[in-house]
Amino acid sequence: MKDFITYLKNYLRQLSLQSVLFTVFFTGALVACNYTFGIERRIRDLKPWYLSLSSFFFFYSFVFYFTWGLVGPPRMATRTSRRNFLLILLAAPLYFSLKMIHWDLSPFLPAWRYPWDKYALIILQLPAKLLLLCMLLGYCRKILKRDDTSITAQFGVTIENFRAGPYFLLLACLLPLIALASTRPDFLHTYPKVKNIAFINAYTPSPLPWQLLYEISYGLDFFSIELFFRGLLVIGLSRYAGEKAILPMAVFYCTIHFGKPLGECISSFFGGMILGVIAMRTRTIVGGLIVHLGLAWLMEMGGWLGIEVLGGI
Q1: 192 with 97: CB under 8 angstroms?
Q2: Which single residue of 84, 113, 249, 292 could bond 143 by disulfide (Cβ 3.0 to 4.6 Å)?
């Protein structure tokens, strides 16, 4: 834990105060607009799907590129480096826009009856989108041209010099906040996410195995989040931008929480920045994955306790 504090202190010392203030103000304005006018909800509800996709792409591109303008684009010696950097910056909002829309996988699935057809569509969404991310990373691997490291190490999927203890301690420090959130109506309206498959309860004598499978699929989403934000946008882009990559990632990361409770959205900016600093210094996303995945499943448990035990909504 002491190392984490040192990482943060060193990072904050080298930041431009002007860039930080403008970035925080910009992020605050985005959050205020979303929770006043429902930006994320309005985009998600757009029909047909390609209108929602293009709107998400426009929004995420605006947020990501504008923040890069605030922190200052990195200086690169060659035209090829600038082109490759811009290609990754273009691919990143496109990937997450594709991730945000619903994929109709029914043509690729057997003709199962209800409710198993609906259940399969939900369960397979996130693994399919993780596969798309792996394809994106393969493309970025060619752009970055780092033949001296494996593709997994290049994007932080490594346990070299990794110590798990501090991350579990950090997760333990978050337990009181989760317990407090579990008593709030806006939190219980969102969590536990497993209630999304409550429709199968009447069709099986024991829903537990199906709920566990859902939670595994849900957990894969957090692997893809860490791999994308901390793996690609921080560790991957550090080749070109160094620690400048952290703030744009944190703002982008905040905007993908616009459909979550306000407190979770605000904390995601600071949490994303902290995890970005740690990933930059340790060159691994495994610790962030422990915190993120542990937090996600603890929130699932907190939501269940809030509803079943405390009688929440």
Answers
A1: no
A2: 84
Q: What is the CA radius of gyration of the chain?
A: 20
Do residues 278 and 150 lie in contact, with contact meaning Cβ atoms separated by under 8 Å?
no
Alpha-carbon distance of 92 to 249, in angstroms, equals 10
Contact 227, 285 (CB under 8 A): yes
In this predicted model, what pLDDT tens digit does every residue of 108-129 receive, in sequence order? 888 889 999 999 999 999 999 9
pLDDT of residue 174: 85
Least Cα distance to 127 among 91, 103, 163, 144 occurs for 103
Using alpha carbons, select from 145, 118, 101, 105 the residue that is nearest to residue 236. Answer: 145
- Give the CA count within 13 Å in the CB-facing half-sphere of 241: 26
Q: pLDDT per residue over 32-80, tens digit each? A: 999 999 999 999 999 999 999 999 999 999 999 999 999 988 887 788 8
- The pLDDT assigned to 309 comes to 66
Predicted TM-score of the model (pTM): 0.90
Owning domain of residue 229: 2-309
Distances (CA, A) of 99 to 33, 57, 60, 105, 126: 22, 11, 12, 13, 8
3-state helix, strand, coil in the chain (%, to 5): 80, 0, 20
Phi-psi category of residue 101: left, alpha or beta, with phi > 0 → left and psi -120 to 50 → alpha: beta
Q: Distance (Å, rounded) from C-alpha 169 to C-alpha 159?
A: 18
Q: How many domains does the chain have?
A: 1
Give the helix/strand (H/E) hosting 210: helix 208-226
Note whether 178 and 295 are within 8 A (CB). yes
Which residue type sits at 47? K
